[in-house]
Amino acid sequence: MSNTVSPVHLDDTIASLGPVTQLAFVPKDFDACVHFWTHTMGAGPFMLMEHIQADSCSYLGQPAEIDITAAMGYWGDMQIEIIKQHCDSPSIYRGWLDEGREGLHHVLIAVDDMEQALEVCYRAGARLLQESTYRGGSAEVAYLDTGGGPGTMLELWKGDDAGRTFFASVREMARTWDGSDPVRRRS
């Protein structure tokens, strides 16, 4: 690289929002992916959240009803999420699989102010693809295409106390996990 390359102003990048805390996958074979992460990588245990439905959701600016199951676990301090969509509704998950993709689907950054975080992303050239609210709007997620090619989708998560408590409980289970009961159903 030449010395004429201008410096990166990190305050103007998505990295200014905080660290990546989750790697998320949307595999063709959900069970095989969970098995890989538990038996090969040693992540877990995974908490299974079945048939999650948002209070409100839009995909590419249009209202959407999307039914998903997510398995959530930890690999050290990194949260791993594995997602399966049950319906044929257009979504970032269905589109990913329809394009024949596998591997890393998105990374997550937790934010306190969704509007401010979206503005940072828009200035960086990202494009909003899908957004949802949960628990009466107390939790929000937004998925953005960061424009960098495959595997560069970003999820912004503005959590609530219920979400933070759930993630903390899954993380605590991982700290003391002995390898037994690698997939558990959320009660």
UniProtKB/TrEMBL annotation:
Residues 19-159 form the VOC domain. Keywords: Metal-binding. Pfam families: Glyoxalase_4. PROSITE patterns: VOC. This is VOC domain-containing protein. Coiled coil: none annotated. It comes from Halopseudomonas bauzanensis. The lineage of its organism: Bacteria, Pseudomonadati, Pseudomonadota, Gammaproteobacteria, Pseudomonadales. The keyword Metal-binding applies. GO terms for biological process: L-methylmalonyl-CoA metabolic process. Signal peptide: none annotated. One of its GO terms (molecular function) is metal ion binding. It comes from the Bacteria. InterPro entries: Glyas_Bleomycin-R_OHBP_Dase, MMCE/EMCE_epimerase, VOC_core.
